[in-house]
Amino acid sequence: MTALTTTALDALGNDVPTPGYDRTAVKPGIVHFGVGGFHRAHQAMYLDRLMNDGKALDWGIVGVGVLPQDRRMYDVLSTQDHLYTLVIKHPDGTLEPRVIGSVVGYLFAPDNPSAVLDRLVDPATRIVSLTITEGGYNVNQVTGELDTSDPALAADLEPGATPGSVFGFIVEALARRRAAGVPPFTVMSCDNIPGNGHVARKMLASFARLKDPELAEFLETEVRFPNCMVDRITPVTTDADRAALAERFGVEDGWPVVCEPFTQWVLEDDFGGVRPPYEDVGVQIVGDVEPYELMKLRLLNASHQALCYLGYLAGYRYAHEVCQDKLFVDFLLRYMDDEGTPTLPPVPGVDLDRYKHQLVERFANPEVRDTLARLCAESSDRIPKWLLPVVREQLAAGRSITRSVLVVASWARYAEGVDEQGEPIEVVDRLRDKLVERAQHNHEDPLVFISDPDLFGELASDDVFVTQYTAALKSLHEIGARATLEAL
């Protein structure tokens, strides 16, 4: 057994590729907020590929954690010299490990906020990237404006406050760079949000305006916010994953990352200065990301929502189980064909029919073992962004919403907190208490769940939507998820 550290890399043998570059020569160039599994399986992996080709050695990543639960990542990465193992899980059971070395530092902001600011203000930092989840942008789901109810944002708006939130750090750092005559960094959002760069600019500028209107204008006009689409299924790392890595490859890693073979990154070429040559390792650099991001959000991400609640209610617990069931596969494909696809603009260079069937194959990979509970989490940040835009466009065009509406109803049924076998469901959502309280009144008031204007806007007063939603919820209550799909 080899504990993963720099000095132990030579002992890993040929079965586990390690960085082929001198990590002492790697200099920080990117600060990344939200170092989780996805970032380490995706953006950090692409940079590691570049570094193995002898490129981008001045683009090392310094991670930042701002939440209390980020301390564990700090502890693990610090112990391992910021190395970790990325394990690709192939459908035939093959594991493909590689040690990634592109992360060269990690700062836990609550312990040392000044160190975070120093790194952000350093002229060497030319990109600040984000995977802070859909909820991290503090967007009111209906108005599209900044929601300042987050206590961390409110604290950062106090005069003279030491930053504690992602927004607080970025805005303070930009103010200091501007005062020092240092060019602003590029802010690169890598979260699953339509127009993620536009959203990041709007929310950060709104936050800055509450502190300094002049700074907000600078941020809107001088800071670049490229849009991008990112894709790689990255389930939560389990103890079994750690054990498999140790038993099969002799690597003791406190927090490896597991993922599927597929990966995609479509990135808008809109940077304030130089950037890594991402195109050299397969990143699609384009002028307009929107067609690709809508394709991914409304087909892949919305399909995850389409399978997770219904699948869970029917007794499944993993995505691959659902996607090995023809009834559910037919439902997913009909959603994608009849409702998701008609809302998409042309997607250059993509065969949509092949893409949709490839999605089902990816979901059905039994080795990834992506839990439905993970896909069901934080629905209040996901359904309004990924699925309700499909509903609205289909309604406006007079087209079918049958399957989209059933997904919304299945979320409402799932939020009741009890499955069809009477077993409790652990609802994970930042709005959990409000959602569960509403859902528990679904029987006596079928519209109670969708009557929250902050989530559903005007849909609770749309006759077509309401009629189909109440019928779908009634069916889920009376005959269950599987029989509802069979009837459909």
What does this structure look like?
With about 500 residues, the chain is an alpha/beta fold. The chain folds into two domains: about 1-285, NAD(P)-binding Rossmann-like Domain (Rossmann fold); about 290-485, N-(1-d-carboxylethyl)-l-norvaline Dehydrogenase, domain 2, CATH 1.10.1040.10. About 45% of the residues lie in helices and about 10% in strands. It has 20 helices and 13 strands. The strands form four sheets. Strands 6-3-2-7-8 form a five-stranded parallel β-sheet, with helices on both faces. A three-stranded mixed β-sheet has the order 5-4-11, sandwiched between helices. The longest helix has 25 residues, at about 465-485. The radius of gyration is 23 Å and the shape is globular. The relative contact order is 0.10. GO terms for molecular function: mannitol-1-phosphate 5-dehydrogenase activity. Keywords: NAD, Oxidoreductase. This is Mannitol-1-phosphate 5-dehydrogenase. Its EC number is 1.1.1.17.
Spell out the key features of this protein.
alpha/beta; Rossmann fold; N-(1-d-carboxylethyl)-l-norvaline Dehydrogenase, domain 2; 2 domains; five-stranded parallel β-sheet; three-stranded mixed β-sheet; 13 strands; globular
Corresponding CATH superfamily of the largest domain: NAD(P)-binding Rossmann-like Domain
Quaternary state of the chains: single chain
Instruction: Assign the structural class, choosing from mainly alpha, mainly beta, alpha/beta, alpha+beta, or little secondary structure.
Output: alpha/beta
- The CATH topology of the largest domain is Rossmann fold
Number of strands: 13
Q: If you average the pLDDT, what whole number results?
A: 96
Kindly, what is the distance between the CA atoms of the first and last residues, rounded to a whole number of angstroms? 53 Å
Strand order of the largest sheet: 6-3-2-7-8
Shape: globular
What profile does the largest beta sheet have? 5 strands, parallel
